[in-house]
Design brief:
Layout: E1 2-3, E2 6-7, E3 18-19, H1 26-35, H2 39-45, H3 51-62, H4 64-67, E4 76-77, H5 88-94
Antiparallel strand pairs: 1-4, 2-3
């Protein structure tokens, strides 16, 4: 999945990942999703938003590896191993083994 709606520029919003070229950060969109559980209401308040913007923001937010990749390029690509299980050493560390 190419995340072409997530952009980043050091001159906009302090380089934080934004939705397209809007002054709306991924973080703020996640906060809005919590505030507006009804997406139709969200789209009424923010008519510039589209469903694909939300989907791509959720992908970035859900994957720690993506948050640190490509922020300066303005284009994100989901790694091939996105759905791969975590390595055993990471699972063990998480489970306190």
């Amino acid at each position: 999945m190419k995340l072409d709606r997530i952009t980043s520029s050091p001159n906009r919003m302090n380089g934080q990942p934004c939705i397209r070229d809007l002054r709306l950060t991924v973080r703020r969109l996640l906060e809005l999703l919590a505030t507006y559980p009804d997406r139709q209401e969200l789209f009424q308040e923010f008519p510039e938003l589209e469903e694909e913007d939300i989907q791509q923001a959720l992908v970035v937010a859900s994957n720690k590896r993506l948050r640190s990749l490509g922020l300066d390029t303005g284009v994100f690509t989901v790694p091939d191993d996105f759905d791969a299980p975590l390595p055993e050493d990471i699972l063990d560390a998480f489970e306190g083994k």
